[in-house]
Design brief:
378 residues, alpha+beta, 2 domains, eight-stranded antiparallel sheet, two-stranded antiparallel sheet, globular, disordered N terminus, signal
Length: 378
């Protein structure tokens, strides 16, 4: 069965909830069926319910080209629905959060992505009961229950795979990037071996680096792992052949006529997204009316501030690494290596601040840790 023509097959009726909201999975340890959830913050908490997983069936496939694709559009496209613009778990999921930058354009890089998505189906959380420990705690400290359980729970997860093959042009500075965008207006950055570069294109990209990379939310079959084992392929724009050959090999395997669909097994699938339902709508009134949350909305603003600096650092590491990969100047390589090392130190500091804040230590402590990490970003 070809990837472009995978048909939707319903093996049963899917459950839909009028007040459910969909979130892009960052694959943190808390994104599981039955996990408590605070919708105001968009953050998974503790699991306060016991229950059973029930497979809902259904499978579907999709192929999409994402040209001139920014990271916010990517997130909004793949979630399906967003609650008040908040669809990322605050603080958590650094690896997946940075991945969205790798497949989209950024401050100094143009990008085109081919996205291949397969959804096996979904699981619901049924026959639910409140865990005995929380039943007991409700009678003595209902506010603690609310802060640990939230106002909702994850009732549905969707398993599948999502692969991005991304072509990028990295520029040394934003001025050259903007000039390229204005003069060339190329939206599709996958080139064929017969691609003939115009003088204007050559002038606009002579100092740029062209790359092809694969990023996945599940779907890394053994053959795809073999094809992509060398990571991102970097090319100078006066010799695109290695990158074009790599892309051709990937698409020969992934698209029509390839073997990817036949190779894809359950063990290659991940949670792509999940839906939450309120305790009130599900009839768990003991948890729904447990008390008022003490979790501050200030966490949302702190998370957004942290993410903006993480974006800056992630983008810079990718750009510097691209130029280092094609450089033949020992002094330039040394300088780029030092700069990448410094940026990686900054990246680790920001990630550690996020991990600390994910424990919800209090907004003052969280803010202090974030500001301390940001102070090291130049």
């Amino acid at each position: 069965m070809h990837l472009r023509t995978i048909l939707i097959v319903l093996c049963g009726l899917l459950s839909f909830y009028a007040n459910a909201h969909t979130y892009y999975s960052l694959n943190t340890e808390h994104e599981k069926l039955g996990q408590g959830f605070e919708q105001e913050l968009g953050i998974p908490l503790e699991s306060c319910l016991d229950g059973q997983w029930q497979f809902q069936g259904g499978s579907m496939g999709d192929l999409a080209y994402r040209g001139d694709f920014d990271s916010d559009t990517m997130i909004n496209t793949i979630t399906g629905s967003v609650k008040a613009g908040i669809n990322l778990v605050i603080f958590g999921g650094s690896a997946k959060f940075s991945m969205r930058r790798k497949v989209t354009k950024n401050r100094n890089s143009a990008a085109s992505a081919v996205e291949l998505t397969y959804e096996k189906g979904s699981y619901n959380f049924e026959n639910r009961t409140t865990k005995p420990a929380f039943v007991e705690l409700l009678s003595t400290d209902p506010t603690q229950v609310r802060n640990r359980c939230g106002d909702s729970f994850i009732h549905n997860i969707k398993l599948g795979s999502r692969i991005y093959v991304t072509a990028k042009l990295h520029f040394k500075d934003r001025t050259k990037y903007e000039w390229f965008q204005t003069k060339i207006k190329v939206k599709f950055l996958f080139f064929s071996k017969t691609f003939t570069k115009t003088k204007v294109f050559q002038e606009a990209t002579k100092d740029a680096v062209y790359t092809i990379q694969v990023n996945t939310d599940g779907g890394m079959t053994p053959e795809l792992a073999r094809l992509s084992k060398n990571g991102t392929i970097h090319c100078k724009t006066d010799n695109l052949t290695p990158c074009i050959t790599y892309a051709d090999n990937l698409f020969s395997y992934l698209l029509d006529g390839g073997e990817y669909v036949d190779d894809l097994k359950d063990e290659h699938l991940n949670v792509l997204k999940y839906e939450v339902e309120s305790y009130e709508d599900s009839g768990h009134y003991d948890l729904a009316y447990a008390g008022h949350t003490a979790l501050s909305n200030r966490y949302i603003a702190l998370s957004a501030r942290l993410r903006s600096y993480q974006d800056l650092v992630y983008d810079e590491i990718e750009r510097l690494s691209a130029f280092k990969a094609v450089s033949e100047d020992p002094l330039e390589i040394e300088q780029l290596t030092a700069r990448i090392s410094a940026r990686n130190t900054q990246r680790i500091g920001l990630e550690q601040a996020g991990e600390y804040c994910a424990t919800l230590p209090g907004t003052t402590l969280c803010e202090n840790r974030i500001e301390s990490a940001i102070a090291n970003v130049d």
